[in-house]
Design goal:
The protein is mostly helical.
Length: 289
């Protein structure tokens, strides 16, 4: 039971960051950004490059990777996605193409051989009778702090009001003096930064490969649908539900751990039968975010 709790908290924290960032972008810009988890992969490889090939420390490498990937996300939005934001099919095609392009670039630069990242911090602590790496505690604590800061940003700042107003009705928000293009650009930056932070946390826990963005993308889409499109609260709760499902399958049925994605999809399907809008899906547009 203790192992299930630890796995759920750690994986749920990473999924919550990924899903919150993607759902934040969807809520404001109405874009399903399929390159989102590829940004996380780029951040993980950025840390690997800076630590292994440039000899920098893990902490400074992580910060530099998050900043670099966030800037890349802003450039992608401003140069490509902003031009086709009104066309969902074009956004899907472009973001999928970008994700695959980033994958191939990582193969060219680092090959497809699995890599391992150094731990963020060393040591371990005994919690609930089991020894837990301090790295896992750092991931859960940092993810909780980041999500709290995002919540405070959305509820207590002018930028948060602008993001929520744009999510409710971009045209009206623009008439009220809110710069919609600037707000959407900043929202894309925040969402990409969340993905990059998740990538930094993923690196030491999961095997680093150019294909590591694929499975999280499936899980994040499941989480967003389960929690409700455009709902930040739904993203967080849905992330831990799916992480719990994964942990139960992996711990209780280790021989069938590869079926954890199937069970996650089954949970989503059952939820959609009961609540077609997801756990916290918006009934009205003004309920988003």
């Amino acid at each position: 039971m203790q192992t299930i709790i630890v796995f759920t908290l750690v994986n749920g924290a990473i999924y919550a960051l990924l899903a919150s960032g993607m759902n934040l972008i969807f809520g404001a810009a109405r874009m399903i950004n399929l390159v989102h988890t590829a940004f996380a992969m780029l951040a993980a490889y950025g840390v690997f490059f800076l630590t292994q090939e440039r000899g920098l420390g893990v902490i400074e490498s992580s910060l530099m990777a998050v900043v670099a990937v966030t800037i890349l996300g802003l450039l992608v939005y401003q140069g490509l996605l902003n031009r086709v934001r009104q066309h969902p099919q074009a956004v899907l095609l472009i973001t999928m193409a970008l994700a695959m392009a980033f994958q191939e670039l990582m193969i060219l630069r680092f090959t497809s051989a699995p890599r391992l990242l150094d731990r963020l911090i060393s040591g371990s602590s005994v919690i609930l009778g089991i020894r837990v790496p301090n790295q896992n505690l750092l991931i859960v604590g940092a993810a909780a702090l980041i999500i709290l800061l995002i919540w405070l940003l959305l509820t207590r700042t002018k930028l948060g009001i602008a993001i929520r107003a744009t999510a409710d009705d971009a045209e009206t928000a623009n008439l009220m003096g809110i710069s919609t293009p600037r707000t959407l650009l900043l929202t894309m930056g925040i969402g990409t930064a969340l993905a990059a932070a998740a990538g930094v946390f993923m690196g030491p826990l999961w095997t680093l490969t150019p294909f590591m963005w694929l499975r999280p993308m499936t899980m994040v889409l499941v989480i967003i649908v389960l929690g409700g499109l455009g709902s930040l609260k739904g993203s967080i709760i849905g992330a831990f539900i799916i992480a719990l499902v994964e942990s139960l399958v992996s711990v209780l049925m280790p021989a069938y751990a590869y079926l954890s994605t199937v069970f996650a999809l089954l949970v989503m399907a059952v939820m959609l039968v009961v609540r077609p809008g997801g756990l916290f899906g918006a009934v009205f547009e003004e309920e988003r975010l």
